[in-house]
């Protein structure tokens, strides 16, 4: 079972500094983790005092370490994550700002691919505690889908979530429906795929310790549509509090020019997103 024993949050001295630190303190408290607060830039007594004041006002009781280091954000953060064996990297941005999409599309996207730890992208930022009652998981079959689902259950337990929906994205095979016969054929095909996916997901859940399932409503949901877009749209429609997914692997000569699940999700951020690794 994966665990978030060490959590890192980037501390940029912007209007979002306080809320980002507060959110990170909450998560560190939920998972009884050591918190690393990293500022990309030179150290100063004034900066350290500001950070300490935010943590003190939150009444954070856990272990905490402040790190100041100059350099390029992606390289510095990835190096610190590696050196300290960080389990969860927290990144936040303000959606109303024009720089939001640029930030998410560059720094966050590159970091999620470069670091070895899980990454939490915060969209719903608030100084007031926001309970994540409903977690949606991308259960699309892949090499890391089992780890994604297990990580989601561990996260749900730590956040005291009440509901988990595991979404099985099933690709349409382009069956043309133009009469009753073709409609029946398409329906049977969809039902067969849904049944196969349900069995696969249930097998994974059966291996998750009971204590991580107790008190949580578990639902399996099959959806058809374009990968990435479909799961993001579903999370938005059901008003999920957190979307958990992995990073799809690109392959082929055109991989640098093709959008994948992560590109679609980051282009809109339907809710807070946890990239499980």
UniProtKB/TrEMBL annotation:
It comes from the Bacteria. It comes from Wenyingzhuangia marina. Belongs to the universal stress protein A family. SUPFAM superfamilies: Adenine nucleotide alpha hydrolases-like. InterPro entries: Rossmann-like_a/b/a_fold, UspA. Residues 58-123 form the UspA domain. This is Nucleotide-binding universal stress protein, UspA family. Pfam families: Usp.
């Amino acid at each position: 079972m994966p665990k978030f024993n060490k959590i890192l949050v980037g501390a940029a001295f912007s209007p979002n500094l306080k809320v980002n630190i507060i959110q990170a303190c909450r998560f560190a408290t939920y998972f009884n983790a050591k918190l690393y607060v990293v500022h990309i830039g030179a150290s100063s007594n004034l900066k350290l005092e500001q950070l300490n004041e935010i943590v003190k006002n939150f009444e954070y009781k856990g272990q905490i370490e402040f790190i100041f280091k100059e350099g390029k954000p992606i390289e510095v953060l990835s190096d610190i994550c590696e050196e300290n064996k960080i389990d969860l990297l927290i990144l936040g941005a303000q959606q109303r700002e024009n720089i939001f999409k640029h930030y998410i599309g560059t720094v966050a996207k590159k970091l999620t691919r470069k670091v070895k730890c899980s990454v939490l992208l915060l969209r719903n930022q608030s100084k007031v505690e926001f309970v994540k009652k409903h977690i949606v998981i991308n259960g699309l079959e892949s090499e890391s889908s089992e780890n994604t689902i297990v990580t989601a259950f561990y996260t749900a337990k730590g956040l005291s979530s009440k509901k988990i929906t595991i979404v099985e994205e099933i690709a349409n095979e382009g069956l043309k429906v133009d009469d009753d016969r073709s409609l029946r054929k398409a329906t049977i095909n969809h039902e067969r795929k849904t049944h196969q996916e349900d069995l696969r997901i249930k097998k994974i859940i059966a291996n998750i310790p009971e204590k991580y399932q107790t008190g949580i409503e578990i639902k399996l949901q099959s959806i058809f549509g374009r990968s990435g877009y479909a799961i993001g749209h579903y999370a938005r429609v059901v008003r999920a509090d957190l979307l958990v997914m992995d990073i799809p692997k690109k392959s082929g000569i055109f991989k640098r020019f093709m959008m994948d699940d992560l590109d679609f999700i980051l282009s809109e951020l339907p809710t807070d997103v946890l990239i499980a690794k």
